Structure formats: C-alpha cells, structure tokens
C-alpha cells in the first residue's frame, strides 16, 4: 500500500514539475519581454494616447476645464501660428546643412583611417573625441565662438575684411552656426560607421582596380563610395529622426531661450513645443505640436524604410 | 523619494545606499515642513538677486529663531524663462512652491488671479504694516478679492548706467549731473544719442531695445492712463499711449543707428559690459550689482550712474508671498514679514534691490556706489520712485511683453523694417494672447 | 528591416566556453589594409582632428584663465594659471550646484544604464533563443519604436502625469521613462544570436535548468562584452539627456546638464571662466569612461552599425 501511495505522490509531483516545465517553456519568454512592454505601455503608449486627447481640447494653465475643440489646435498651429510651420522648415533646413558637409568630411576621415596607420585605436578615439562633450557644453562653447562682437569666427572673417556678422539675425547664418555644433559632435561617430562599412568591402575589388591602374583617388570614388552608398543613405535617414528632435543646441545658442531668435529664425519644432508648454502654459497646443511632430517623424521614417528597402532590393 | 537637493542630500543618498529606489511616491522626508531634528523648515523660493543670501540673513534669522531652519532657493534664476514657469507648475501641482515665494511685479496680477493659492497675511495681523509702505506698493500685494497676499521687497527705481570713457570719446559730457541735464527729457536723450552716433565712436549707444522699452513703457503708462500692452480681459491695447510712445521712440533711435544688438542677458551683452560694446543702458536699482559683476575689473572706473530721462519711473521690484500649500503658514508669514522689514531691506540693498518701505528708502538715501565712481545711487533712485503711481500689470502682460520684445529685437537685427515692425508686434502679440488663453 | 528579423543559420562553430574570446571577425573584410597613407592623408587627418579637439582645448584654456580671455581676438591659446582656483570656486559655490548635479546625474544615469542593460538582455535573449507565440510580431514592434524618441513625443501628458503623481523632483520621474529602450533589445538580441550557441542551451535544458537559470548562468556571461557596449552607449546618451529632466526637475535638484545651463544662462552667466570650468567638470566623467573604455566604445559603434 505504501508503495502505491508513493507512486501516486511521485506521479502528482511529476505532473506539477511538468506543468512548471511547460510554463517555463511557454510562459517565461513572455515574462522576459514583459518589463519592456509594461514600461512601454505606461511611458510610451499611454502618454501618446493622452497626448491625442489633450490635443483635441482647449486646455491651459488658465483654462483647466478641458473644453473639446476638435482639430482647432492643429488648425491654429498649421495655418495661423507662423512659427510652427517655420519651425519644421528650420529643423529640416538645419538638418540638411548639417548633414552634407558632415558626410563628406566623415567619408574622407573614414577613408584616411582605413589606411595602414600605426596606433589605429588612438586615431579613432581622437576622431571620436567630441562625443564626450555634452550638448549643453557644446552650446556654451559654440555660442561664444559664433558671437557677433566677440566671437572667434567673426574675428577670423575680420582678418579678410568681412564685417562682423550677426549670426542669429538671419535664417541661413543661424542655421550654419547651429549645424556646426551638430557636425562637430557627430562627424567622428559617422566616420567610424563608414569605416566599419569600408572594412567589409572585399579587398579583391581594390586589387583588381590597382591592376587596372586606378590611383587611390579613383579607387575612392569608383569603389569605396558606391559600395558605401547603402550605409550612407541608411545613417542619413536614421539621423533624420534625431535631427527632428534638435533642441539643446539652438536653445543654448539663444542664451537658454526657446524662441530661437527675434523671429524664430532658428526655432526648432521641439523648441515650439516647449515654448507652448513652459512660456504659455498651453497643454492642448503643446500636445498638438507633439502629434504633428510625431507625424513628421513617421513620414520621415516611412521614407527611410522605403529607400532602405529599395537599396536592399537592388543589391 | 525625492531627488537630491542640497538639503535632502544625505537622506536620499542613504536611501540609495540601502537600495530602496522604490517606485512609490515620496517617502515624506521634509514634507511636513520639519527637519530631522524637529525644527520647522521654511523654504524661500527666489530668483535673480534678492540679496538675502549675500547679506547673511539666513544665519541671522536662524540665530534669532532657534526652532526655524531657513532655506533660500533659486538665487540667480532667470525670472521669465525658469522661475515663473516652475512656480506656476508648483502652485498648480499643489507642492514644491516653498513656504515663501518671491514674485516680480510683472507677474503679480497673474499670480494674484488665483486667490486660493495664497495665505491671507492679514489673518496673522500683518495688515498693520500698511503704513510702512507707499500706498501703491502695499495695494499691489493684494488679490482682486482684497486678500493681503504679499509684502513688498524692493522697488526698481530707475537711472541710467553709462560709460564715461565712451562718452568722453564721443565728446559728450561725462559728469553725471551734466549728463542728467543733457537728457533731462526724451528729446534731450535723442539729441545725446545723435551726437554719440555722429561722433563715430566704435560702440553702440544703447545696448538693446528692450531695456529702454521697459523703462519708457512704465514711465509713459504712469503719466497717462496706466494702460500698457493688454488689459485685464485679455484685449490688446497696443494703441495705448505707453506702447505707441515707447515703440516709436525705439524706431526713431534705431533708424538713427543708436541701438545695439546686445540682446539682454546674452553672452554678448555680458561681454560688452566689460569690453565697452555699448555706452549706456537703463538701469533699475537691482541692475547695478549685475553690471558690476559683468563688467568686473575690465570695466572698473568706466561705469557711472545718472538720473534717467523723463520723470519718475519704476521697473521691477518684487513681493514675498506665502503659498497656501505651506505646512507652516504662520511661521512662513513671520519670516516674510521679517525679510521685508526696513532693516533687512537695507541689508539686501548691498546686492542691489532698493528698499520699498518708506523707512528703508530713507535709510539708504545717502548711499553711494564705489564701482560707479561713487555715484549717489540712493539719492537718484529714491528721487525716481518718489512720486511713482501704481501700475497695473495684467495677467497676460508677461507673455505679451515677451512677444513684443522679440519683435523689437528683430527690428534692431534687421529682421523687420521700421515699416513692418508694427505688424510684427501686432501678430506676435495676438498669438501670445491666443496661446495664453483667458 | 525584415531581413534582420530572420534568425541566422544555426551556429556551426562548436560550442565554446562562454568566457573564451570570440575569434576576431573583422579581418576578413580585408579592404582595410590596402593602401599606405600618403602625407596628404596624414596632414588632412591631423587637421580634422585639430578642429575636433580645439573647442575642447579652448574650454580648458578659458577655464584656466578669467572672463576677459573669452572675448579676445586673436583668441588666447595658452592655458593660464587659474584652473585650480576656478575649479575650487565652481565646486564650492553653493549656487552653482555642480557637485549636486554630478551626484544626481550619476544616480539617474547609473540606474537607467543598469536597468536598460538587464531589461534588454532578458528580452534580447527571449527574442533570440526562445520560441513563443507572437515573438516575431513583438520584435517587429520593438524595431518600429526603436526609431521613435518616445520619451519626447508624449512630453506633455507625461509631464502632467508626474505632476498628478507628485513626482516632480524625484528620481523615479527622471529614470522610469528612459527604461523604454528598443535599441537595447535589438542590440542584445543580435549579441545573443552571435555569442550563445543553441547547443549550450539545449544541453542545459536536458540537465533540467530553468530558463531563468540558463539566462543567468549561460547567457549573461556570454553577453558580457555586449552588455559593456550597450551600457557605455546608454550611459553616454543618458548623461546628456536634457529635455525631460529640465521639465521634471528643478534648479535645486538638477542633473549636471541642468546645472550647466543654470550657471551659463542664469545670473551667474557673468563669470565666463566659471561657466567654462563648469562645462569642463561636466564632461570629465564621460571623458574618463572614454579613455578607459575607448576600445569598447569604438568597436561598439562600428559593430553596431554593421549589424544593422
């Protein structure tokens, strides 16, 4: 009898263990990914939904009643509040003029780093060094460098007889100044990414070209650049999203303000969003600006996706 | 759990060390307004330079009131960008506003609009302080419903800071009474500006449009109907005499080439004060300490201070309020009253803010400032506020003011011509009203 | 993107102990050492590096001098003797809050980094090696939101949420939103695919090890290099975070970035040598990390990019 009980017990234990094992196989994976998705639900999904709600309401520090106004906030931002559409132009413009010179320099630097250099790591780290600087620190230093009366750039231009430029006064000039901060900080990073891609280019291509008598410059343009095209486009589009969030550099360029110059010459969309929230205390408008920014980013990401897919398809 | 600040640092560090980075709401240290050793902790939320820390008032009050621990926060904060939004949020949130809060006059109307935010100081018998103040300063410390919510700290009596070296170079008088006589009125001021510009001296006459705009706006409003940018109902009043006169004066001076592009508080504005980038700047009392810091050794001996053009004027000046969220309103009110008493106002004056009590102003009337060539600052400022009429800053004033000042900076940096500036002001101001929502 | 989602062919290499170094793969991309650098290359490279380093160097120059030095042209190029005094002044000035900012930044960034690495290695392992329904869909989801800076788009309601919860000026407000990091999961998934052979997991399963135990005993040790890289990148990124702390923290409870903005645009902006000293102090922690872990950071950036 005792043996019968024992067997029954063992049997029961086994089913429990089986069940545990089964759960371990089926359930644990969900537990492992749960922290991320829970956090995302609370700090990603919920706020996005709530932003939508807020954006449809007239809601500010002075009007806490949250009156439903439909798409009125969006209408105001898009069609009446010039600063908002301009902020998108500014952000994209700064991104464009930050990207092109940066790509060219980064390519050149990557090409140089790809050659037989001693102390490889040291060179790479030196190129990457600006990334240690925080964006706020970059802003502080570059605001001085681009100052109108006492800045270094105007000092240098003065040597060739150009009068002091008020870099904050015009769109183009303020964009250049701010782009320089972005370029300076990220050039080395992109150079390393290009370098990594260059190292995957098969050596035979170069050897064959060398046999055909192509010099190093020709090799660069005929082999390196075409081979890197996908990476270049990919990194460019990836950085669009970061570029759309540009905030700290232009803020520091305007002594910590959010208005981006006297007429929003370099006010980015993020700055408009914060200006609406902090200066005007207008939650509804700020939320609407957040959604519009999101839509712009989605459009860019979609474009990104299409272009990258096409490149991969062509390969 | 609260984030580290200077005063809660140790407790928070200990909590971290113990590994209790709990996701729960705050653990409550200091929330009931007491410190670990059972003292009542009173936090004073300030901005700019109120001068309390510099005058050592914390130690003084604590030694006179051993059961109180005073904490001054926010010294050096920019009012418009940082302090006001943070305090608005704290008042709305119902926590974080401190026990005593300083408030600049520009935002007083906005802050007073919500009666529930403030403790009635009359409840603790402080309505007897009425006679210590000029009538207008006392009145503006009340809510629309008549609750006594704030004690005046300082007044921003006005004068002009100017560079004697640049004035001499331009062939202008340098002695402060002569300078004051030359710009006794605004016509005189324009003439002086013209002379300076014509002399070809390599510097701007004025720093930027905004300082002058503020000074002139308040002056003209005081002389006329008191109306400035926007009325209490949120209607723009850009055709008021104050706005028209001030903006038109700016346009005239700008066409003359007398206004620099040194945006107030920018890096260039600061550097220019040391390097002599501009010759003159309207200076409320509290600005003197700032100029001294900015100009430093490089500008020593070059700055002087003279009476401002026109009649009396006032720009800036603050109140101390007790938020209703303070756990110790009575003690907070006592501290606010003490800080604004004449003796303490005089002590704070060392850092710039000019006493707003009648007695305090009397006590500093013979003060001279060594950095400004021993200018009789006390006398000049006292004279400028002597007959000052109360100005009503409305709830939307701060945001419309910001919008107008942005446009005026645009006039000077070439974004707007003299012809489009009024349109720009109109549309920026309309946006500010629309967004501010009333 | 879909190509990345496909699991790679099972690792053909024999299972090796987790602590053994992976063989270096980079060599086979042999374009690397084709050309000797010309003089022009060297000069050009040195020129670019000089431009990269100059603002950092100039920061030190001004921090070691006084305010007036920042406004001069030609610019002052040699360090002065005030660095020690300026640093002491910056650190001890009670209004500057630099030490406090450093402390807060360390606590916030450190917590975010450790949590992100753990959360990511858990989820990355699950996506790489465990079979469960919907895993592809969920991973696609992670990839999709990886591109979007979620923390910045829901700013307004998240801020209002913090106000409601009375979480302003608290650690959790500054930390929690940044634990959502799709990139980390993506990266750890790739590392797991690369460095944890299926055989090892199978063997452990046969021995009766639970999934959690497998993660702890087998996956984590193998992932260590990847975790270091993810940790470094996360730390550097979050050390620089400005916008969200700016909204939910105050000048009295700053991160180092807020403290720097405060001394540079508040009324203490008057003393430029101190502002520059402050910025200098603010970049020291990352600089130290950079010097110690330079190799990992460089290879992390380079490997991370080829994985995409």
What does this molecule look like?
The complex is a heterotrimer of chains A (315), B (438) and C (308). Chain A has 315 residues and is mostly helical. Chain A has a two-stranded antiparallel sheet with strand order 1-2. In chain A, helix 2 crosses helix 13, helix 4 runs parallel beside helix 8 (171-198) and helix 8 packs across helix 10 (216-244). Chain A is flat, with a radius of gyration of 28 Å. Chain A is built from 13 helices and 2 strands. The mean pLDDT of chain A is 87. By secondary structure, chain B is of the alpha/beta class. In chain B, helix 2 (57-64) links the parallel strand 1 and strand 2. Chain C has 2 domains: 38-81, no CATH class; 82-307, MetI-like (MetI-like fold, Orthogonal Bundle). Helices cover 67% and strands 0% of the residues of chain C. The B-C interface holds B 1-6, 9, 12-13, 16, 21-23, 25-26, 48-49, 53, 73-78, 81-82, 86, 89-90, 92-96, 265, 267, 270-271, 274-275, 290, 293-294, 296-298 and C 67-68, 70-71, 94-95, 97, 100, 103-104, 107, 111, 163, 165-176, 249-253, 262, 265-272.
Concise structural overview:
Chain A has 315 residues and is mostly helical. Chain A has helices spanning 2-26, 28-55, 72-80, 83-113, 120-128, 135-145, 152-159, 171-198, 203-211, 216-244, 248-253, 269-279, 283-314; strands at 57-58, 67-68. Chain A is flat, with a radius of gyration of 28 Å.
């Amino acid at each position: 009898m005792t043996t019968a009980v024992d067997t029954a017990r063992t049997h029961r234990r086994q089913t429990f263990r089986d069940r545990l094992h089964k759960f371990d196989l089926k359930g644990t994976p969900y537990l492992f990914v749960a922290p991320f998705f829970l956090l995302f639900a609370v700090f990603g999904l919920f706020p996005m939904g709530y932003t939508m709600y807020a954006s449809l309401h007239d809601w500010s520090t002075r009007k806490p009643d949250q009156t439903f106004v439909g798409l009125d906030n969006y209408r105001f931002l898009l069609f009446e509040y010039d600063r908002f559409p301009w902020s998108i132009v500014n952000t994209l413009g700064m991104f464009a003029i930050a990207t092109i010179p940066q790509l060219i320099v980064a390519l050149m630097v990557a090409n140089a780093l790809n050659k037989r250099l001693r102390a490889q790591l040291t060179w790479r780290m030196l190129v990457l060094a600006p990334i240690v600087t925080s964006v706020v620190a970059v802003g502080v230093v570059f605001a001085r460098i681009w100052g109108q009366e006492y800045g270094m750039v105007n000092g240098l231009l003065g040597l060739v007889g150009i009068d002091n430029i008020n870099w904050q006064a015009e769109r183009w000039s303020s964009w250049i100044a701010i782009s320089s901060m972005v370029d300076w900080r990220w050039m080395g990073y992109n150079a390393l990414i290009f370098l990594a891609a260059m190292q995957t280019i098969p050596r035979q291509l170069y050897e064959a070209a060398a046999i055909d008598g192509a010099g190093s410059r020709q090799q660069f343009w005929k082999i390196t650049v075409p081979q890197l095209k996908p990476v270049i486009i990919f990194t460019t589009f990836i950085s669009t999203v970061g570029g759309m969030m540009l905030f700290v550099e232009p803020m520091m360029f305007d002594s910590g303000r959010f208005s981006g110059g006297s007429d929003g010459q370099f006010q980015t969309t993020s700055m408009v969003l914060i200006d609406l929230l902090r200066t005007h205390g207008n939650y509804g408008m700020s939320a609407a600006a957040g959604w519009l920014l999101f839509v712009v980013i989605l459009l860019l990401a979609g474009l990104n996706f299409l272009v990258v897919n096409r490149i991969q398809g062509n390969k | 759990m609260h984030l580290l600040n200077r005063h809660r640092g140790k407790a928070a560090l200990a909590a971290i060390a113990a590994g209790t980075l709990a996701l729960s709401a705050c653990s409550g240290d200091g929330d009931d307004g007491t410190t670990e050793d059972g003292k009542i902790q009173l936090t004073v939320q300030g901005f700019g330079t109120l001068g309390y820390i510099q005058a050592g008032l914390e130690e003084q009050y604590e030694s006179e009131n051993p059961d109180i621990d005073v904490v001054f926060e926010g010294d050096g904060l920019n009012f418009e960008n940082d302090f006001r939004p943070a305090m608005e949020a704290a008042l709305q949130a119902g926590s974080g506003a401190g026990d005593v809060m300083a408030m600049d006059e520009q935002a007083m109307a906005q802050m007073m609009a919500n009666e529930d935010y403030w403790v009635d100081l009359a409840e603790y018998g402080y309505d007897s302080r009425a006679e210590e103040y000029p009538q207008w300063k006392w009145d503006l410390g009340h809510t629309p419903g008549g609750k006594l919510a704030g004690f005046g700290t300082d007044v921003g009596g006005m004068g002009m800071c100017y560079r004697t070296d640049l004035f001499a170079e331009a062939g202008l008088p340098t002695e402060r009474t002569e300078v004051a006589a030359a710009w006794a009125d605004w016509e005189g001021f324009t003439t002086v500006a013209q002379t300076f510009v014509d002399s070809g001296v390599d510097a701007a006459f004025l720093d930027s449009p905004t300082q002058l705009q503020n000074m002139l706006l308040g002056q003209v409003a005081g002389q006329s109907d008191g109306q400035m940018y926007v009325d209490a109902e949120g209607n723009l009043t850009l055709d008021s005499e104050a706005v028209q006169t001030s903006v038109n004066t700016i346009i005239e001076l700008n066409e003359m080439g007398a206004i620099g592009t040194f945006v107030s508080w920018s890096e260039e504005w600061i550097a220019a004060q040391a390097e002599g980038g501009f010759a003159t700047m309207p200076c409320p009392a509290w600005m003197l300490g700032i100029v001294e810091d900015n100009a430093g050794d490089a500008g020593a001996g070059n700055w002087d201070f003279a009476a401002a053009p026109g009649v009396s004027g006032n720009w800036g000046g603050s109140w101390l309020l007790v938020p209703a969220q303070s756990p110790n309103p009575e003690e907070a009110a006592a501290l606010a009253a003490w800080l604004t008493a004449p003796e303490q106002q005089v002590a704070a004056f060392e850092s710039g803010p000019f006493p707003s009590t009648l007695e305090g102003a009397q006590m500093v009337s013979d003060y001279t400032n060594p950095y400004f060539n021993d200018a009789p600052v006390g006398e000049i400022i006292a004279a400028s506020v002597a007959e000052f009429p109360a100005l009503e800053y409305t709830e939307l004033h701060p945001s419309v003011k910001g919008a107008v000042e942005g446009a005026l900076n645009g006039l000077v940096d070439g974004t707007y011509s003299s012809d489009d500036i009024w349109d720009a002001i109109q549309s920026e101001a309309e946006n500010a009203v629309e967004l501010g929502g009333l | 993107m879909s190509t990345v989602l496909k699991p790679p062919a099972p690792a053909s290499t024999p299972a090796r102990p987790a602590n053994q170094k992976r063989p270096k793969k980079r060599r086979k991309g042999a374009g690397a050492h084709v050309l000797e650098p010309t003089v022009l290359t060297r000069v050009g490279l040195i020129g670019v590096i000089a431009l990269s380093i100059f603002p950092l160097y100039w920061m030190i120059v001004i921090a070691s001098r006084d305010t007036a030095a920042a406004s001069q042209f030609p610019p002052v190029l040699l360090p002065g003797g005030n660095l020690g005094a300026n640093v002491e002044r910056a650190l001890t000035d009670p209004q500057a809050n630099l030490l406090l900012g450093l402390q807060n930044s360390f606590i916030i960034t450190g917590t975010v980094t450790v949590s992100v690495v753990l959360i990511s290695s858990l989820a990355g392992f699950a996506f790489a090696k465990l079979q469960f329904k919907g895993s592809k869909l969920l991973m696609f989801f992670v990839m999709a939101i990886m591109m979007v800076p979620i923390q910045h788009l829901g700013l307004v309601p998240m801020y209002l949420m913090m106000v409601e919860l009375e979480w302003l000026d608290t650690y959790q407000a500054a930390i929690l939103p940044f634990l959502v990091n799709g990139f980390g999961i993506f990266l750890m998934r790739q590392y797991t695919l690369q460095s944890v052979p299926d055989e090892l997991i199978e063997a452990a399963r046969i021995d009766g090890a639970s999934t959690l135990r497998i993660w702890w005993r087998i996956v984590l040790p193998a992932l260590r290099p990847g975790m270091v890289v993810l940790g470094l990148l996360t730390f550097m990124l979050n050390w620089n975070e400005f916008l969200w702390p700016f909204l939910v923290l105050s000048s009295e409870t700053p991160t180092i970035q807020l403290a720097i903005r405060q001394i540079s645009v508040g009324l203490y902006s008057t003393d430029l040598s101190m502002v520059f000293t402050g910025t200098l102090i603010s970049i020291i922690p990352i600089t130290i990390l950079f010097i110690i872990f330079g190799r990992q950071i460089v290879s992390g950036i380079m490997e991370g990019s080829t994985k995409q």
